[in-house]
Design brief:
Blueprint lengths: L7 H6 L11 H57 L2 E5 L12 H17 L6 E7 L2 E11 L5 H4 L7 H10 L13 E10 L5
Antiparallel strand pairs: 1-4, 2-3, 3-4
Helix pairs in contact: 2-5
The site of heme C has 25 residues, from helix 2, helix 4 and strand 4.
Length: 197
C-alpha cells in the first residue's frame, strides 16, 4: 500500500485539476497485473533480440538492435497489449527516452527507496488526470546486469569500435558509467482509466 503514492502534488504543480484518488485494492491489483504482463513482455522480447544479435554480430552489430529495433518492438507490443509503453531514465542514451514530469517523480521514488532501504521496490503506481482523462501508470524498475556493461559500462574499458559507433549515433549520451546492480531506469506502462472502470 505504501508503494501506491498518488501524483496529486505533481498534477497541481502542472496546474491541472486533480483530486487525491484512493485506489481500491482491486484496482491496484488489476493495474499491477496488466502493468507487469506488458512490461515483462517488452523486456523478454528486447533481451531475446539483444542476446541473439550479440551472439551473431557481436556488440557493435547489436547496437543496431537497441537503436533501430527497440522502438519498433515497443510499438508492436503496445499494439498487442493496447497499453502505451516507454523506457525512461535520468541518464539516457537517446534523448527521446528522457522522462516527463510524472516519470521523473517515479524515477526519484525508486532512487530514494534504493538509497534508504538498499533495494528497489518491485513497482510503483501513479494516477494521472489530464484534461478530465484518467490514466494509470505502472512503473517497473530495471537493474544493470553484467551484460549491460558491454554498452553502458565505463567508457575507457569498453571496445573502442563500439564506443565510436555509440558516440556517433548518440552525441549527447548520458548512459555510460553504470555499474552492475545500479538502478538503470524504468519501463512505464500507461493504462487507459476506461479499461478499469
Ligand atoms: C549492444 C549494446 C547494448 C547493450 C548490451 C545494452 N544496451 Fe541498453 N541501449 C543501447 C542503445 C544503443 C540504446 C539507445 C536506444 C534508443 O535509441 O532508443 C540503449 C538504451 C537503453 C535504455 C533506454 C533509455 C536510454 O538510455 O535511452 C535502457 C533502459 C537500457 N538501454 C537498458 C539496458 C539494460 C538493462 C541492458 C542489459 C540487460 C542493456 N541496456 C544492454 C545499447 C545497449
Amino acid at each position: 500500500m505504501k508503494r501506491v503514492l498518488l501524483t496529486a502534488g505533481v498534477v497541481i504543480l502542472l496546474g491541472c485539476a486533480s483530486q487525491q484518488v484512493q485506489l481500491s485494492p482491486e484496482k491496484q491489483e488489476k493495474i499491477k497485473e496488466i502493468g507487469e504482463a506488458s512490461s515483462m513482455k517488452l523486456l523478454k522480447t528486447l533481451k531475446g533480440e539483444l542476446m541473439a544479435a550479440m551472439q551473431k554480430d557481436g556488440p557493435v552489430g547489436a547496437v543496431e538492435v537497441c537503436s533501430n529495433k527497440a522502438m519498433a518492438l515497443t510499438k508492436q507490443i503496445e499494439i498487442e497489449t493496447s497499453n502505451q509503453i516507454k523506457r525512461t531514465t535520468f541518464k539516457y542514451r537517446n534523448p527521446n527516452n528522457a522522462p516527463d514530469k510524472y516519470e521523473a517523480e517515479a524515477l526519484t521514488y525508486f532512487e530514494e527507496a534504493l538509497k534508504k532501504e538498499g533495494k528497489l521496490p518491485p513497482y510503483y503506481i501513479q494516477t494521472v488526470k489530464e484534461n478530465g482523462k484518467i490514466t494509470y501508470r505502472y512503473y517497473k524498475p530495471l537493474k544493470v546486469e553484467g551484460i549491460c556493461l558491454t554498452c553502458h559500462g565505463d567508457k575507457n574499458l569498453m571496445d573502442k569500435q563500439l564506443v565510436e559507433k555509440i558516440d556517433k549515433l548518440y552525441p549527447q549520451d548520458k548512459a555510460y558509467g553504470y555499474k552492475e546492480g545500479d538502478f538503470r531506469g524504468v519501463v512505464r506502462v500507461s493504462i487507459d482509466g476506461e479499461k478499469l472502470r
